[in-house]
Amino acid sequence: MPARILDGRAVAREIRAEVTSRCERLRRERGVVPGLTVVLVGDHPASQVYVRNKETAAREAGLRSQTLRLPATVGEAEILERLEQLNRDARVHGILVQLPLPAGIDAQRVLQCIDPEKDVDGFHPLNAGRLALGLPGFVPCTPAGILELLRRNGIELAGRRAVVIGRSNIVGKPVAVLLLREHCTVTICHSRTKDLPAVASEAEILVVAAGQPGMVTGDYIRPGAVVVDVGIHTVRDEATCRRLFGDDPQRLASVRERGGTLVGDVHPLQARERAGWLTPVPGGVGPLTIAMLLRNAVLAAERAAGMGSW
Ligand code: GUN
User: Fold this and answer.
1) Are 39 and 80 in contact (CB under 8 A)?
2) 234, 261 Cβ separation under 8 angstroms
3) Alpha-carbon dihedral 177, 183, 189, 190, rounded to 10 degrees
4) Mean pLDDT, residues 169-183 taken together
5) Contacts by 170-174 with C-beta closer than 8 Å and gap 24+?
6) How far apart are CA 187 and CA 159, in angstroms?
7) Rg for the chain (alpha carbons), in Å?
8) pLDDT tops 90 at residue 257
């Protein structure tokens, strides 16, 4: 039986509807419109798209959203100064600095400058530390979205064996901590892990944030496992498309007519045959990242208005 689909779009829709009604309540009861500012430095092509999508989604949910665009040549001191201004601005409840930053800028210094109460990405060391200690705080959006997707599909976590492939601060580490908090037995794998397929195939819950298109083939997947694919890449050539999607006419048409099709870190055909549950790409984890950002932003506004707690 092919894997059941974990529909990220459907769960993201639910979360966005909840955010919309929380925005309405803030406006009605406190006259507050939650404000989100995204800081985009330079012209990284994928970041431009992500930031535009975040801005549109925020507006649709009823937030006041603005993007502060700075040239790639901007100095670190100016970025810090702009962030200090945003920290002081009471209309701005959430601040997000889109990563990656241009070479030569110390991302950690920049992230540490954001007021932890406005840190809707959860990347400030105070929020990362809270997460590690099991204290309430802002949780990074993609990991929080993954947990929400599993929870809302009724997937049991306590006592189960989870493997995370990838150890980034944005996804791998925080998702491992969240799974641990749900009482999974968690292993984190990375590029130096020996015999990765053997370790991965012990997982009942497999989260893949490896950054390699189609890397996780069937031999990585325990039959019936829940597979969460965090990767997103564009496949532009027909041979790779056929290797990943077989003769799927829609995928082939997309490569031929639109110049590419999206794939994650998991081999879609092989995973479908072995996994019990699978997140599609697109339409899996991606939509949840934005939905959780909006939820963090409305939470920041509620906290500022004395109306909400973590
Ligand atoms: N770049 C890739 N993912 C993310 C994210 O979740 N937040 C930010 N700020 N930048 C990113």
Assistant:
1) no
2) yes
3) -10
4) 98
5) 170/99, 170/123, 170/140, 170/142, 171/140, 171/142, 171/143, 171/209, 171/230, 172/209, 174/122, 174/128, 174/131, 174/139, 174/140, 174/143
6) 13
7) 20
8) yes
Residues near ligand 1 (Cβ within 6 A): 96-99, 121, 141-142, 170, 289
CA of 66 to the centre of ligand 1 (A): 16
Give the Cα separation of 235 and 224 in Å (integer).
Answer: 27
pLDDT at 308 over 90: no
Distance 99 CA to ligand 1 centre (A): 5
* Cβ count within 10 A of residue 289: 23
**What's the pLDDT tens digit per position in 119-152?**
999 999 999 999 999 999 999 999 999 999 999 9
CA of 1 to the centre of ligand 1 (A): 35
For ligand 1, pick from 83, 99, 146 the residue to mutate: most ligand atoms within 8 Å of CB: 99
Catalytic residues: 54, 98, 121
* pLDDT, position 214: 98
